Amino acid sequence: SFVVSDAEDFSVSDLASCILKGLGRSRLRLLFLPPSLISFVASLLGLSSLWSQLADELIVDSTAFRSVTGWSPIVSSRKSLEQAAFSFR
């Protein structure tokens, strides 16, 4: 079995930057909160598993699929995110 991805990894701020660029906004204002603080608050609210799903890294290695099939995305993920955000303008 294969795992399929476009081989681009993103952080939350990378995703937000792409979306903002597509929306025509240049400033990214993220409030930094220590993950330990968010984890503590999530545990108080009974949301620890949700926080784990959001905070843990999800990195997919699709090397085997891409080497067997020769597939590569026509448009980069970053550009696709920008285009999707642009369509909401």
Walkthrough of the structure:
With 89 residues, the chain is mainly α. 52% of the residues lie in helices and 0% in strands. It has helices at 12-22, 35-44, 48-55, 63-69, 77-86. The termini are far apart.
What is the makeup of the main sheet? none
> What letter string, H or E per element, gives the SSE order?
HHHHH
* Overall SS class: mainly alpha
Mean pLDDT: 88
Number of helices: 5
Low-confidence stretches: none
Search tags:
5 helices, mainly alpha, 52% helix, single chain, 89 residues
SSE blueprint:
Layout: H1 12-22, H2 35-44, H3 48-55, H4 63-69, H5 77-86
Quick overview of this protein structure:
This protein has 89 residues and is mainly alpha-helical. The protein has helices at 12-22, 35-44, 48-55, 63-69, 77-86.
